[in-house]
Design goal:
binds magnesium ion; OB fold (Dihydrolipoamide Acetyltransferase, E2P); 5-stranded mixed beta barrel; single chain; alpha+beta; binds 4-amino-1,4-dioxobutan-2-aminium adenosine-5'-monophosphate; elongated; 2 domains; 8-stranded mixed sheet; BirA Bifunctional Protein, domain 2
Length: about 425
């Protein structure tokens, strides 16, 4: 690897030592020039740095090359760095020499662009300072999820992506041709995880899940990264405790590592601090309906799932996530355990984020009773016989267990304050967007 120092390192060194000699490697983020002097602002993954190339210093011939340098050219610039308050990042290099490493001509992304144009050019737009900031935060989020589970003694386990049956309902399944037989892309690792908790007891995974979502909303992708956990010997409160613990840990790490990125994205960090510091609010579905009726003048009939507008109005009443439990059995997945003290509801929970970021976690205690599972499957128009191996798990040493799934892009959208989930991933997949 070329031994290069990052722009931020060079600026930090200059801050301590005063003027220093340096080699700067990067891409041209901005450029402008006159007959005598060319300004290029280089960017790398840490920051930007203004470089000044003077004709008088480098000679006519070399300056004619500098004069033609365009945005996104890859360059090496050698010179002295010093403080320059008028430069974009407060420092400037005065070039004694430079080298064009990769030419760029007529970079298609100029200042005026539409959202669709940027999505069509996502392979190039990932270089924007905004996308760099988001992708760095994304990396922190993934690291923090692994860290949370590993420090809490969870093993990493992986389930297959090709599956023979539905877990989250048939309507969002992607069917694939598997050597002439129909198979589906997985919606969740969960059913296989329920097998492996009998071996490893506490497990987690971060992997893509697939949902054939026809909804064109700012919260839905067809391929999203799903962080899931499953525990044997689990009690319902453990699911809530780990869901809250995980979100708090992720936000804490982003606040520690990504303040410059949050600033670039103009994210109000006081909102993120509240998520770390204040306890989340637990309420039942019935409580939620009551608040919606009394405070938001929205009358949701019992047994109906909360729609986006209802979730939004409900969460607007609070500045921390809500953990809504005890949804009606009829609107939730077949595997969710009935609440013995309120059998028309399930021991399931949705974590609803504030500011319109919606459901970020869905989880539940799992039903252990095989007959009940079969009945629920039949009620949902499914064939229990297709779930053969899954039923075995209830026959051989079944124990209380449960878990949850967190939509990683939903958390990234929320922590970054994004308008649309498509910006939370480098190459988004939605019903209408599958390229680049
Ligand atoms: O609520 P869901 O459907 O739950 C499950 O899949 C369970 N099997 C998880 C488990 O218990 N192991 O999905 C979990 C989370 C949602 O709360 C949401 O954050 C995210 O996955 N999610 C999506 N994110 C982006 N695009 C989509 N289309 C999503 N669908 C669900
Ligand atoms: Mg859900």
């Amino acid at each position: 690897m070329i031994k290069k120092q990052f722009i931020q390192e060079l600026m930090d060194k200059c801050e301590k030592e005063g003027e220093i000699s340096a080699e700067v490697y990067g891409w041209v983020w901005r450029e402008r020039g006159s007959a005598q002097v060319k300004f290029v602002v280089l960017r790398d993954n840490t920051n930007v740095l203004q470089c000044v190339i003077e004709k008088a210093k480098i000679g006519d011939e070399k300056f004619s090359i500098a004069d033609k340098i365009q945005v996104e050219t890859a360059m090496k610039i050698v010179g002295k760095i010093r403080k320059e308050p008028r430069a974009p990042s407060g420092y400037e290099v005065n070039a004694s020499s430079f080298e064009v490493i990769g030419e760029a001509v007529n970079y298609p992304i100029t200042k005026d662009f539409s959202t669709e144009f940027l999505l069509d050019n996502r392979h190039l737009w990932v270089r924007s300072r905004r996308m760099i900031a988001i992708l760095k935060i994304r990396s922190t989020v993934f690291g923090a999820i692994h860290e949370y589970f590993r420090t809490n003694d969870f093993f990493e386990h992986h389930s297959p992506c090709f599956t023979a049956n539905a877990a989250e309902g048939g309507s969002t399944l992607f069917k694939v041709d598997y050597f002439g037989k129909p198979m589906f892309l997985t919606q969740t690792w969960q059913l296989y995880a329920e097998a492996v908790v009998y071996a490893l007891e506490k497990i987690y995974c971060i992997a893509p899940s697939f949902r054939a979502e026809r909804s064109k909303t700012s919260r839905h992708l067809t391929e999203y990264w799903h962080a899931e956990m499953e525990m044997a010997w689990c009690e319902f409160d453990d699911i809530l405790k780990h869901g809250e613990g995980l979100i708090k840990h992720v936000f804490k790490r982003v606040l520690e590592k990504n303040l410059p990125e949050l600033e670039l994205l103009k994210r109000d960090v006081s909102k993120l601090k509240k998520v770390v510091e204040k306890p989340f609010i637990r309420m039942t579905y019935d409580d939620a309906l009551k608040i919606l009726k009394e405070k938001c003048k929205m009358d949701v009939p019992w047994g109906k799932d909360l729609r986006t507008i209802e979730e939004d109005e409900l969460t607007k009443q609070f500045d921390v996530p809500l953990m809504v439990t005890n949804y009606p059995k009829i609107i939730k997945a077949f595997y969710m355990k009935e609440d013995a003290s309120n059998p028309s509801t399930v021991l399931g929970v949705d974590f609803l984020a504030p500011d319109g970021y919606g459901e970020v976690i869905g989880g539940s205690q799992r039903e252990e009773n095989q007959e009940k599972i079969e009945e629920r499957l039949r009620d949902q128009g499914e064939k229990p016989e297709l779930y053969g191996w899954y039923m075995d798990l209830r026959k051989y040493g079944s124990v209380p267990h449960g878990g949850f799934g967190l939509g990683v892009e939903r958390i990234i959208s929320w922590v970054c304050g994004l308008d649309n989930i498509k910006d939370a991933i480098a190459f988004p997949r939605t019903m209408l967007r599958y390229t680049p």
